[in-house]
Structures are given as structure tokens and as C-alpha cells.
Amino acid sequence: MTILVTGATASVGRLLVDELVAAGAPVRALTNKPERAALPEGVEVAHGYLGRPESLPAALSGIDTVYLAPLPAYIDEFVRCAREAGVRRVVALSGEPADYEAQGDPSGWHYYRLEQAIEKSGFEWTFLRPGQFMNNTLDWAPMIKAEGVVRAPYAGAVQTPIDLGDIAAVARVVLLDESFAGRKLVMSGPDAITQPEEVECIGAALGRELKFEELTPQQYLDQLMPVVGLETAQWLLDGFRMMVEHPMTPEPTVAELTGRPATTYREWAERNVAAFASD
């Protein structure tokens, strides 16, 4: 039975397509730019996007199982189209903060809203709940290239970042094994690590010493607000603060489900060293 992968040319979705193809599973890839998709041979391409609900009926036709990329603003439209198409299973990429969101203002619901809509829809569901992505630290590349320094708040915040490839590998296992129905799978990388320690890993990969300079919360907001706006900047800042107050601990999900160790941050830095190297 063909699996529809939404967000098939985005970060996790593109890696998941490769995982499923390698496992011999038939895949239909939903992409807004099929001419740029560079998808593997044999993958069926559906031209569309979750944010364009009118493109979903054709993409969902004949589909039993969907990997759902997170786009909560359009979750109600997806649910309607998927139910009309007869979709039975949904494996949704959610996030570790879903339960925390449920304790706050509904206007701030993101992952929780997505999960609630899927749960109430009658689908068989599994939610993948990763925490921070290792790829988020690619945002440091301009600072590292220009000055050899990273500036960020809350140096003592303990994180457990995860590699996108590990998320995709877990998603492949869950999509091909229905025994995970009804589970909310929290996952992380294997390291409990601070931002200064991440900077040290990048420096080791580059073969040169890098510096970490801690910003005050206000300095961080002043730096980020022009880029992402106050609400998002405050949300990110609060996340760092919470990881000081409640240090994160690694989850064994990746190793347990895939049968191999999760990627360490040091391994990730070595694989992505070119992104931080001076031009």
C-alpha cells in the first residue's frame, strides 16, 4: 500500500522518502516544486502542498497511510480531505513541547493543536515528538565564519538535540509497523549537551578554537526580534530558560526502534563541517 509523504522535499520528509525507498515501500511524495524535488526513481510525485488544501484530494486518493509534516494552521483542512479520501493511518511529526503547550494559552498551541485534531478525527495515529534539531545550530554559521564566536543566551541550558536523519529513520520504522498505533514517541539525540559544548564540537571539527559569549535575555531578544518577531523570539528564549531550570535527559527511542545508536552532536558537526568553514 502506497504511503503519502507530505513535505517530501523538506528536511525530515526528504530523508524519509529515501528511508522508505531503501526499505522497498511504495511512496507518493507531496511536493510543491516537483521539478526541483530530485526524488529517487520509482517515487510517485503528487504536485501540492498542505497549505493549499485544494491540492490534497488528488494526492490522498487511494492512500491508506500518511506521514504528516507539521503545519497546524491547515490541520483541519487536512483532516477533512483525508477522511473524505478514506485514509486510515496518520504518523505525524509533532514535537516534545506538545504536552507543555496544553497547559498554556490556546493561542500558543502548535503541536498540541495538531495532535488533538488527529486524535479526534478517528484515524489510527502515532505522534513523533523530537526536541531540538541539531540542524538549528546551522544558524551559527555566519558568526563562526566571520568572527569565530557564537553568541546566545543561557549557557547552562542542557539540551538533547537530534539529527534529522534519526527522526526519518524512526518515522520509517513506525510507518512500516502498525504496532506503534496510539503512541506518542518522544525522541532525542544521545547527548545531554550545552551550547558552549556544541560550539566546542564544531571547533574540533574545524580544527580551530571557537568562543561562546553568553547574551543576556534582553540582548537575545533585541538581536532576534527584527528577524522573527517578538512572540517567536520570546518563545525561543523561554525554551532556553526552561532547559536551565529543567535540564533535558536523552531518550532511548532512536536506538530502540532503529537498532543502531543515535547520532551524537560531535558526529553531526563532523558531517556538517563544511557549513561552518570559511569560504
What is the CA–CA distance across the termini? Answer: 46 Å
Largest sheet: 7 strands, parallel
The top level CATH class name of the largest domain? Alpha Beta
N to C succession of SSEs: EHEEHEHEHHEHEHEHEHHHH
Structural class: alpha/beta
- Count of individual helical segments: 12
Number of domains: 2
| Average of the residue pLDDT scores | 93
> Helical percent range?
40-55%
Low-confidence stretches: none
Can you describe what's shown?
Helices cover 41% and strands 15% of the residues. With 279 residues, the protein is of the alpha/beta class. It has two domains: 128 residues, NAD(P)-binding Rossmann-like Domain (Rossmann fold); 122 residues, NAD(P)-binding Rossmann-like Domain (Rossmann fold, 3-Layer(aba) Sandwich). A seven-stranded parallel β-sheet has the order 3-2-1-4-5-6-8, with helices on both faces. Strands 7-9 form a two-stranded parallel sheet. Strand 4, helix 3 and strand 5 form a beta-alpha-beta unit. The protein starts with a strand and ends in an 8-residue tail after the last helix. The mean pLDDT is 93.
